[in-house]
Structures are given as structure tokens and as C-alpha cells.
Amino acid sequence: MISYLANPKRFMSMSSWAIPVGYGLGVLLFAWSLYRGLFVVPADAAQGGDIMRAMFIHVPSAWLCMGLYAALAVSSFVWFIWRHELADVAARAIAPIGAGYTALCLATGSIWGKPTWGTWWLWDDARMMSVLVLLFLFMGYIALRAAMENRQKAARAGAIVAMVGVVNVPIIRFSVDIWTSLHQGPSVLRADGPAMADVYLYPLLIGFLGQALIVAGLVMALMRAEIYRQRAQVLLTRRLQEA
Amino acid sequence: MGSFDHNSGFIWTIVGLGLVLPFCLFIYVTIRTRFEKKRLERFEAEERGE
Fold first, then answer.
1. Would you call A236 an interface residue with chain B, using a CB distance cutoff of 8 Å?
2. Which of the residues B1, B4, B6, B7 would you substitute to probe the A interface, choosing the one with the greatest number of A C-beta atoms within 10 Å?
3. Distance of CA A205 to the CA centre of its chain
4. Which residue of A has its CA nearest to B18?
5. ipTM of this predicted complex?
6. Cα A81 to the chain's mean position, in Å?
7. Which of the 8 DSSP states describes residue A51?
């Protein structure tokens, strides 16, 4: 499937219908999840009352930013080993979306933290700091690519940063188990099954699926922009050589 | 608007951010795609001598 789509022409054809479908379905699922999370599910007194409704925004953004970094690392690996240009196009498109969702995760987490823990930020909290490092990795990736004079050098340097930085993803995941953190332990992805009641779990998972579809649409649209840019660059280079 | 406890300001700020970010990304991505597509189409038209 992936190797079939790893052809720019096939990708352009597939993405022309996949993007609107992703956006449409994603918005519907996200809206349903938000409606359930805000107005239907009961407030949980053990989680600080109504403020736990922030979970339906914050938790999907946290899963997405980690998933996007993992996707950035995989795309970079594919480009680094097989030099597949579409993998580099994907990596380049994932980075700004990932940076945006990481910033969202940090901002919503900080706002949720104030009424729950009495503080906006803690510098010695392993989870907060590892997510902040993730934001710096995304921004560093974007800045490094922009600083390189040609695309091959930019792709190589970016791929190395992305592959080395992926070590931060399991650090974020297991930070609450290894170090001290105000965050609670995992409540969904656990060896003995989710610890969360179904009334919260299903809207959360469906909201995550909705946001993931929106993100997939955004990434594919940015990949199309990058393919257009590269084709224009080829024409421009040819014209300069002829002149 | 739902009526929440004393933390409603925090809740609505978080919800607002959660809606604004995908919307802003959507605007950025749409503008960027249209710009790059039009630029390519202009170059292709110039190649054909139009």
C-alpha cells in the first residue's frame, strides 16, 4: 500500500479526494467528541470536577504530537535509507503541523494545570520538560532545514535530527513512571487495559480519531504544496540554465 | 454555553485553543497550497509560451 502510494502522481491523485474526506469525517468525529465531553459526560470529582473536560482537547493533542514526531522519524529514516523523495516531502510537511500540536499540548496542559495543581508550569516535571524538548526538536528541525543552502543537504541534516530525536518519544511516554511528575500514570494504554470508565473513554478515542483525520488531511495538503513547489523549482532551474 | 463550576474560564480557554489551532493550520495549509499551485501553473504557462 505504502510503496504503491510512494509515487508522486499516485499520491496527487489519491490525496485529491482523501483530503476533503479526512477533513469532513474528522470534523464530524471531533465535534461529536467535544459535544459529549463538554455537555453529556458527568464531571468527575476525583479529577477536579468540570476541569477534567479539558481532557478531550489536551489528551488527543498529546498523542498526536508524539505520533507526528514518530511519523517524522519514520519518513526521515525511509528517505535516509532509500532516498525516496516523497518520504522527504512527507517529513517536511509533518514538522510544522507537529510543532503546532505540541504547542497546543503544552498550552492546554499549562492552563489545565493551574486549577488542578495550582501552578502553570514546573521546571522539574519530567512530562512537561520532555514535551517542551519535543517542541524544540520540531522547531530545530524546521530551522535547520531552512538554514541549509540546498535541498539534499537540508534533507540529510533534518533526517539525522529527526532520527536522533525520536528517543524523546518513549521518554515522554514513560516519564511519569521513571521520574517524579505531577501527571498521573497512563490510564488508557496500559498492559491490563484502560483504567478509564467507558463513558469517558469512547468520546476520547473518537475525538482522537477525528483529530488524527484532520491532521492527516493537513499533512497531505502540505505535501501537495511541497510537490508543486519542487516542480516549479525544476522549471525555474531549467530556465536559469537555458538563460 | 454549558454551565460549569468555577473553572469554566479555564475550560473554555482550552476548548477555544483546541478549535483555533486546527483552523489556523487549515488556513495556512490552504493558502500555501494555492500559492504554490498558482506559481507552478504560471511557470508552466510561461514554458508553453503563453
1. yes
2. B7
3. 16
4. A57
5. 0.92
6. 23
7. G
